[in-house]
Design brief:
The complex is a heterodimer of chains A (about 260) and B (about 500). Chain A is mainly alpha-helical. In chain A, about 75% of the residues lie in helices and about 0% in strands. The longest helix of chain A has about 35 residues, at about 60-95. Chain A starts with a helix and ends with a helix. Chain B is α+β, with helices and mostly antiparallel strands and about 500 residues long. Chain B is built from 15 helices and 21 strands. Chain B has helices spanning about 1-20, 60-70, 120-130, 135-140, 165-170, 230-240, 250-255, 285-295, 295-305, 335-345, 360-375, 390-400, 415-420, 435-445, 450-470, and strands at about 40-45, 75-80, 85, 90-95, 100-105, 145-150, 155-160, 195-200, 205-210, 220-225, 245-250, 260-265, 270-275, 310, 350-360, 380-385, 405-410, 470-475, 480-485, 490, 505. A seven-stranded mixed sheet of chain B has the order 8-9-10-1-11-19-12. A six-stranded mixed sheet of chain B has the order 14-18-13-17-15-16. A four-stranded antiparallel sheet of chain B has the order 4-5-7-6, with helices on one face. The radius of gyration of chain B is 25 Å and the shape is globular. The chains are: A mainly alpha (about 260), B alpha+beta (about 500). The interface between A and B is large, with 47 and 42 residues.
Amino acid sequence: MKNRYLLTGGILSTLVTSVIVTGYFWTPYSTTAMNAREKMQPPSLSHWFGTDNFGRDVFSRVMQGAGCSFLIAVLVVLIGCFAGVVIGSLCGYFGGTADLILMRICDTITAFPAILLALVIISIAGSSVSNIVLALGILFIPSFARVVRTQYAGIRDLNYIKAARLEGVSVPRILYAHILPNTLPVLVPAMTIGFNNAVLAEASMSFLGIGIQPPMASLGSMLKDSQNYLTSAPWYALGAGFSIVLLILSFSLLSEGIQVSRNE
Amino acid sequence: MRKRIAVLLTSLALSCALGAGPGATAVMAEETKNASSGNAELVVGLSQDLDNSLDPYQITAAGTREVLFNVFEGLVKPDTDGNFVDAVASEHSVSDDGITYTFTLRDGVKFHNGETVSADDVLYSFETCAATTTNTAVAGALSDIQDVTSSGNEITITLKEKNSSFLSTVSSVSIVPADYADQATAPVGTGPFRFESYSPQDKVVFVRNDDYYAGAPALSKVTCRIFEDANALYTSLDAGALDMALHMSLDQVNSLSNGYDVIEGEMNLVQALYLNNGKAPFDDERVRQALCYAIDIDSILELTEDGHGAKLGSSVYPSFTKYFDESLVGAYPYDPAKAAELLDEAGASGLSFTIKVPSNYTPHVDTASVIVEMLSAAGINASIQKVEWSTWLNDVYQGRDFEATVIGFDAAYLSADALLQRWVSTDSSNMINYSNKDYDAAIEKAQHATDDEEQVAAYKEAEKILSDTAANVYIQDLADFVVLNPKFTGYEFYPLYASDFSKIRPV
């Protein structure tokens, strides 16, 4: 195996995904039940990541939290990608004034830090999983739209598209059957980057207290809570922090691996 | 590729930034401490900076008030039990109708600038305080003064109407020298310590007032070092660079390794699950009582604070010994069966509600988390909504748009009135929409009582009504820890936000 990225990324992401999927159905301990006698236990065979300040198993909560982040990130990327492809393809293919206006709107959205805008949306609309998904999804549209638009603007003048047009192929078919598959080498890495950003954005929002609400576990809010116990229970912060790193690292390596193998 | 690395770095930074704090603080080696008697210096760590202005009437932060307690005094000042003892005045008396207060100035009390306190200074202080104070409770009480007059050493204050907690207002009016313009930067008072210097974000230094009328304090100098980061403060304390730190968390106290003494007190807060009595289903007394039975306070204390903290029972905290009614503490023992029964009776089984909690106050969020878990075991579906502090103030405190919330109320002035008046049905800060005629009558009676005993009895009656009608689910007064170098002793807690350095002495 020459492609180490693909190998490690593949193994890590399979591992991470299988733990997350398991977490949807089963966790070693309850994620909410509190137990005063089990408070702040260091990592052991029965509690792999130790226990938190309420005696809850950190590993179980990490499973649930990562599952939550994963689900949100996937949905955010789907929303952002779908809307981004629609907007980007139309703008890139047709150009003109509408393109100009839409792209300037995208620029404006990008000019604000994503977290800040998400904060505003959540504080107006209230905090719930669906609102987080919607807010982040909308904020992720511009980055996809821009990537897709550039691709379409480049491809629309190529000979095979001209030929298709002359043959009278319908516009939707040209857009999504002829051009779209050729944007995938750019779109797929954009999706993995988007996924990673979405995981981080959700964690940051929960860290700030406006994301996932307790008692539901979230990697971000676990990091926030563990801050107070850094000196006496470092495993609490490490468990949550390590999981965020692993989640992002595995999918980054995977996308890097796909890129490398494509170039070969 | 570069973008992906950036993503990775951000994720690492998010998880590691939390660990980076403490190491940054160097040990303050120049702070040579001399514990020999008569020349003992104390180094205190403060976890927040002082207000921009040190003018006693302009203080807004409790942390500033807490340390300047050592510099300023009123005609009377509070003691550790919540009584008022004479300070700048040597005696005080109240007329039988409770309208006229007479104070006799103590002989030879000197300001820190060397001048002797005169009756004119007192008149000036009352005038200036009434005109400029940022404390609305004090400003309100001062606006009800008919007039303040002096003859020789006697100061007479006449009120427009009786105010049973007026002494607490008097204690809030710090006596300052007339026409001294630099209070904001170089405060001058009559307290046991003299202000020496303040450098923002660094330190504030107090030195002993050798002319103090009650005898000069044992410490010759108190240096308060300011730490914006709690971890940095903790590291300095553990390394021995500080002699004392206030308001430490249980976790910090538990992991302290330098053998310092830990003194446990309370924060003087009434932490409760406050219920909106004006909103269904909490307008039904039985539902509120059911919640009281369904919540195990001991468990909450055990889970959130290893069993520290003091149980309440009503809207007065225990260190307020004069007004605290201990018999109310166990009024609602943990009894989920009874809770279910009461809910059934009220037709509210399967109850579900939202607890709004300010996200910046970890102890309240923690308590709310435990409550939610506890209630789910009792078949009640509560959920948490964390909100920004400003949103909480807007929606919950002012807008009264909430079902339940966990928060702690403190006393704006040292009287049970400060804690109980707010639940009178017409009070503008009656956030929970509590409405009970007997309660209103009891508070009215307390406010117009002619002697102390009658007043205390009336306040206790009011506390009992709050408990009987289960106005809120009273939880605890949070534990507060002071860490002190064993070379020193004498720290005492006050029922208000104050750190009295004058009581601390070398062993």
